[in-house]
Amino acid sequence: MTSPVKAKKHLGQHFLTDLNIAQKIVKALPDDVKATILEIGPGTGVLTQYLIHNENFVAFDIDTESIDYLKKTYPQHQHKIHYQDFLESDLSSLLIKGNIHIIGNFPYNISTQIMFKVLEHRNNIPVLVGMFQKEVAQRIAEKPGTKTYGILSVLLQAFYKIEYLFTVHENVFNPPPKVKSAVIRLTRNNTVNLDCNEDVFFRVVKTAFNQRRKTIRNSLKSLLNGKIIEHPLFEKRPEQLNVEEFVILTKLVENINE
Q: Which of 99, 122, 96, 88 is closest to 38 using CA atoms?
């Protein structure tokens, strides 16, 4: 698919041009005819061309050139292409039909924000397949014990199985980014609710990693009300804790504040 849309970076977006990679990304979605497929930032339509004929497909973009081009290219599907900011969108109208699978070559500058919105709607977003800056993709998929492991790793892995699918070279984009990209898949796990207060869990994880060089005891001082808890988890650093250990930690913090 050759696009007349002027190549440009929009919110950090780089348009994929390799059709083989585009097909690999689309094939990573489950074959679920009941779910809505939402593409974020379709750009020149390299993924859209393989998705737009699905009855429940919808695309959100805030680039008017891209929107105009896609509507002219697919006049019979204009109603599926929307000038809409995903981060500001109310997904309730899409949820009327059921779950939403999300796909996209996500703009680098807002990819983390996209993930936090997905977390908010995790019970209605069973699968996400996305292209990210490689470092962000690695951070999301990373396991405990490394410098890359962080807030996004813990929060997303609490509710999703994360698969790092493949790395994408910068030469297959227009304009080429200065970094490599990667495609990952998030699949909702069986965790309906964590065995703790989830608001406190989010606060504990974020507070701990905001001072990741310190031990948990020191990084969580603001949540402990000056109290000392004798537990081995407090002697570790945040990157050493898995999701289950953060749940235990959260319950300890909850007990202090009761």
A: 99
pLDDT digits (tens, 9 = 90+) for 65-75: 999 999 999 99
Structural domain harbouring 217: 198-256
- Of 105, 44, 86, nearest to 69 (Cα)? 44
d(CA 152, CA 129): 16
Q: Give the per-residue SS3 of 176-215.
A: CCCCCEEEEEEEECCCCCCCCCHHHHHHHHHHHHHCCCCC
Q: What is the CA radius of gyration of the chain?
A: 20
Interhelix angle for 111-120 vs 134-141, to 10°? Answer: 30
Residue 193 belongs to some domain of the structure = no
Please check whether residues 172 and 53 belong to one and the same domain.
Answer: yes
DSSP state of 148: S
Output the pTM of the full model.
Answer: 0.91
Please give the structure tokens belonging to residue 134.
């490689």
